[in-house]
Design goal:
Order of helices and strands of chain A: HHHHEEHHHHHHHHHHH
Number of helices of chain A: 15
Number of domains of chain A: 1
CATH architecture of chain A: Orthogonal Bundle
Oligomer: homodimer
Strand order of the largest sheet of chain A: 1-2
Distance between the termini of chain A: 20 Å
Shape of chain A: globular
Largest sheet of chain A: 2 strands, antiparallel
CATH superfamily of chain A: Farnesyl Diphosphate Synthase
Radius of gyration of chain A: 18 Å
CATH topology of chain A: Farnesyl Diphosphate Synthase
């Protein structure tokens, strides 16, 4: 089976689970809110973060059934951040994954609330799961996720991204934004999976290094695709970074240096993966795929 | 000491604690985000929810130091909801507690992110506290809070409030909105305090009834003040409910019936409080004050 087929099969498992949440409603208001939340949650996406969480958790001995709620919770956090990033006050995007963005379908007020609802629901879900299981491991996993999502993680990265737009950027600012905005949530998928499986602090540190490398490579690849890809392949307009004067690795260092950096980071990620006991072949293929993907 | 003085002293304790969070920053971007988060978090407010959490927790035997982080976390959730509610896409308010609303000072993008940051930080704080203590009691408290804040609580209530604006409202819709938008977060302050103190399910149910009664009375009083008060006393424009065709108890049943309903709910709340062992005199005064306040 190719990595694309393998990923697709694993994404189907995540989507089947995502389809089980928010299906009952007290009244038509709640139904409308759920519709808006699920519109974005179920509109495709590669499900990379939940797949990483499950793969790492299983690598270190946890079972899929013990990992899947947290995997879905991370996907909800990812989705809420996309809904809010797309708002007119932020990136003002009309399309996401080839479909209208949330506020284009449901209006701005509902899009803000659907995002709030998804962020909060991800915690509801993690808290419920923690209460049913070994609280300590799950609380540690929740801590990893909450740090990555918040003011010192993804929210902080988005602030830096907004504030630096249109200004002359530096390598430091760029690396800060990429570390917080992209790497943080990818990394916590790895460490949360590790926490649930009960790995050591040393392994958690390796997982952090792995996440940082993959996150950087993933983001640079994203920025390369924004220059080199095609709207019909990518499902969103290309050239938007240049239009918005976004600070990116290609804008600072050019395309060739960006591609070399992706290769360097991919090698580092593979070195870390190979240092783990157990079968890391799928994770290695996944990392290589992520860093060389076409969409 | 009058109840106003007593409340003021307790609010000072909350504010001293709130002032200890978000004080260090990695760089100027994070500093700006923290500034925006703290602008709203520290701009006055009666600190009702955190005071209720601590009072109920102490009534049932918990110590203030074991309660105060969760008390502050609830205030953060309350504050984030105000920041998002005030946005142009929602209530479009320029003033809150006599000061400019967050987006009027920091712009819409930052206001959305400051709200997201506060919601997420409240969970970071609760998770940290849970990891340091008896996880189970704290996880139960977190569950109460997350249910109250989310799609079946405050977010759901705000959705119903937005969607019902300008439409002919019914008593059912009104009660749903008040239950979710106001009572839910007040109620979880009581039940979270109870959970941390380790109360029984029966007491939790009494606390839920108490919260619902106080929440309804509090909201109806709020709607009465929007008609009868003065902008200089209230710190925000009056008459905005009528202007926005908001569904309120006074708009459905008139001022006199609204005042009678507040009295009925206050009596019920006092009955429940008197049924608890221990000294509930401060909580009784607080409830009476909340339901008869002038601002």
């Amino acid at each position: 089976m190719s990595i694309k087929e393998g990923l697709h099969k694993k994404a189907e498992i995540i989507e089947a689970k995502l389809n089980t949440y928010l299906v009952t409603h007290e009244n038509s208001y709640e139904e409308k809110l759920h519709e808006s939340m699920l519109y974005s949650l179920l509109s495709g996406g590669k499900r990379i973060r939940p797949i990483l969480l499950i793969e790492v958790g299983e690598l270190f001995g946890a079972k899929q059934e013990d990992l899947i709620d947290f995997a879905c919770a991370i996907e909800m956090i990812h989705t809420y951040s996309l809904i809010h990033d797309d708002l007119p006050a932020m990136d003002d995007d009309d399309l996401r994954r080839g479909k209208k963005t949330n506020h284009k379908v449901y209006g701005e007020a509902m899009a803000i609330l659907a995002g709030d609802g998804l962020l909060n629901f991800s915690y509801e879900l993690m808290i419920e799961t923690s209460l049913k299981n070994d609280s300590y491991c799950y609380l540690k996993a929740m801590k990893e996720i909450s740090k990555a999502a918040g003011h010192q993680g993804m929210v902080g990265g988005q602030v830096a991204d907004c504030l630096s737009e249109g200004k002359i950027g530096t390598k430091d600012t760029l690396e800060y934004i990429q570390l917080k905005k992209t790497s943080a949530l990818l990394t916590c998928a790895l460490t949360a999976g590790g926490c649930i499986a009960g790995v050591s602090e040393m392994t958690l540190n390796d997982l952090r290094k792995l996440g940082t490398a993959v996150g950087f490579a993933f983001q640079i690849r994203d920025d390369i695709l924004d220059i080199e890809s095609d709207e019909s392949v990518l499902g969103k307009p290309i050239g938007s970074d240049e239009k918005n004067h976004k600070l990116t690795y290609p804008s600072l260092f050019g395309l060739e240096a960006s591609k070399a950096k992706v290769r360097e980071l991919t090698d580092e990620a593979n070195r870390i993966l190979k240092s783990f006991d157990g079968d890391t072949s799928f994770l290695e293929s996944l990392v290589n795929y992520l860093c060389n993907r076409e969409y």
